[in-house]
Amino acid sequence: MKDAQTHTQAQTGAAGPAPLPYSAAELKRRRRDLLKALGDDAVLLLPAAPEVIRNRDVHHPYRQSSDLTWLTAFPEPEAVAVLAPKRKGGAFVLFCRPHDPEREIWDGYRYGVEGAVEHFGADEAFPIGELDERMPEILSNRRRVVYPLGLDDNVDRRVIGWLRAVRGLARKGISAPTELVSSDQYLHERRLIKSRSELKLMRRAAAISASAHRRLMQTAEPGCAEQRLEASFLSACAEQGARFQAYPPIVGSGAQACVLHYVENVGVLADGDLVLVDAGCELDGYASDITRTFPANGRFTDVQRRLYDLVLAAQLAAIEKVRPGNHWNQPHKAALKVLTQGLVDLGLIKPEGADLKQLIKDERYKPFFMHKTGHWLGMDVHDVGQYKQDGRWRRFEPGMVLTVEPGLYIAPDAEAPAEYRGIGIRIEDDVLVTEGDPEVLSAGVPKDPEAIEALMASARSG
Ligand code: GLY
Ligand code: MN
Ligand code: MN
């Protein structure tokens, strides 16, 4: 407690603002670009994500809306960011919680309206309690209200209420907005192309998850609880600075690996089983999403290897297609080709005279591979950005990040040779589109079967 400021903070119980992991200049550029795109007759509103409070009492860790973070970095709940081009007093307005020494003793530091201006570059900031009073004026004589239309009923109702209030000013010669427009088209296409600083965070998030996967693999052995592996993953991420996960980890051993969203993680690894782990941390608001499948006892059986090698070949073929100019569906098509041919070769699909093209058209792979080969990745694990434009699959551009995650799931009751039943395999990496070869952000965790066996053996011998 060296200086007066620290002393004051100690008295209020507030720790003070944590350093923000984003560049203020970059955020300012984003807002400037967006202001231009909006045009002078529009106003953009972005509300903070609602808090998660269980039983009206327990506050769960707060996660800000990705859109609001991307545009402002403002981390607190009960806030609304406004971009109003050419507004007198400034285009960027933040409504937020004012300072409250009593609340800050309980819940910690808040930026307050002063902090919104000082730390976040708002031209003006007002207490969130003044939102209903001030919004009609901000919306006066604008034609379009741009906001996350239809995302949250409460927000929709508030916006309609403000519109009504502006309409009530008609006799004063004030016109009310006539259009409600989704903010998605403005923000999400921009979020899809990652900047250098965003890629730095995503590389780090993927590297942390990759090292957590490696440690988890080294911990695994028959008799080990799935939950212990989950705990190993969570602690490895947290120890490296990533306290939150991008989604709940999936740790499925044996036939549980055939359940795509198995998050109970209540099983115990049996000798001879495969283990599928789909887990990825979130770092400073950016997601990673990695799946590896490995043998509980450290050695793949011949049967497991046949299926594993097929999924790996499909994944490598799909990654090869992640190049500028190729379209979104090309990796999926490449994976389908390899998987479908492999399923025929292994006797899991009986072609009955149909050629490969026809088998794919008839979706004969579907009983064993029922999801797409990937999704955009960014601030959200299933990130924003369109997959089609004007009815056509969109083309890859440098700066886009996606997952490539083919799998094979032979359910215990599948129509398949008995030796394959109850095996689930997925291999998932995070891939950046570059000017040249695809960059696999999650390459730090092995997927080559011999490399997995060597990693697991090294843990046993050490
Ligand atoms: N972990 C979610 C997904 O792979 O899409
Ligand atoms: Mn994924
Ligand atoms: Mn995943």
Describe the structure using short key phrases.
disordered N terminus; 462 residues; alpha+beta; six-stranded mixed sheet; Creatine Amidinohydrolase; binds glycine; Creatine Amidinohydrolase, Chain A, domain 1; binds manganese (II) ion
Quickly count the helices. 14
Calculate Rg over CA atoms.
Answer: 26 Å
In the CATH scheme, what's the topology name of the largest domain? Creatine Amidinohydrolase
Tell me, rounded to a whole number, the average pLDDT.
95
Tell me what the CATH architecture of the largest domain is: Alpha-Beta Complex
Number of domains: 2
C-alpha termini separation: 46 Å
Strand fraction equals: 15-25%
Secondary structure category: alpha+beta
Bound molecules: glycine, manganese (II) ion
* CATH top level label of the largest domain: Alpha Beta
- The quaternary state of the protein chains shown equals single chain
Could you state the CATH homologous superfamily of the largest domain? Creatinase/methionine aminopeptidase superfamily
User: Strand arrangement, largest sheet?
Assistant: 6-5-4-1-7-8
Could you describe the 3D structure shown?
There is one protein chain. With 462 residues, this protein is an alpha+beta fold. The protein has 2 domains: 188 residues, Creatinase/prolidase N-terminal domain (Creatine Amidinohydrolase, Chain A, domain 1), CATH 3.40.350.10; 269 residues, Creatinase/methionine aminopeptidase superfamily (Creatine Amidinohydrolase), CATH 3.90.230. It is built from 14 helices and 21 strands. The protein has a 6-stranded mixed β-sheet, sandwiched between helices. Strand 4 and strand 5 form a beta hairpin. The N terminus is likely disordered. It binds glycine and manganese (II) ion (2 copies). The site of glycine (GLY) has 7 residues, from loops.
